[in-house]
Amino acid sequence: MNTPMCASLGVRKGSWTEQEDFLLRKCIQIYGEGKWHLVPARAGLNRCRKSCRLRWLNYLRPHIKRGDFAPDEVDLILRLHKLLGNRQVYVFIRLRSFYSKVYDVRDL
Description:
The chain is mostly helical. It has six helices and no strands. The model is unreliable at 102-108 (pLDDT under 50).
């Protein structure tokens, strides 16, 4: 059985601290997204690149919307479902075009 890369590097696992989140945000602000293999060293983190990338994409990225849907969003989803049925890919494509007016498309 193969050992995950993070385990073989002896990097920190588990919950992220506020300090680690701050360092990751600062690093992304300076260098931008991408080149994740360089991020842990640049940020001064004892985490693997995959952990840094997932933390950024799932929790720290600006414009991540959490919580309940707004009434207009619920209405749009219901209308799309009625029109397209359970074809989730097509519903998602329509939602992407709806949100691209508000957010950068890459944020979705």
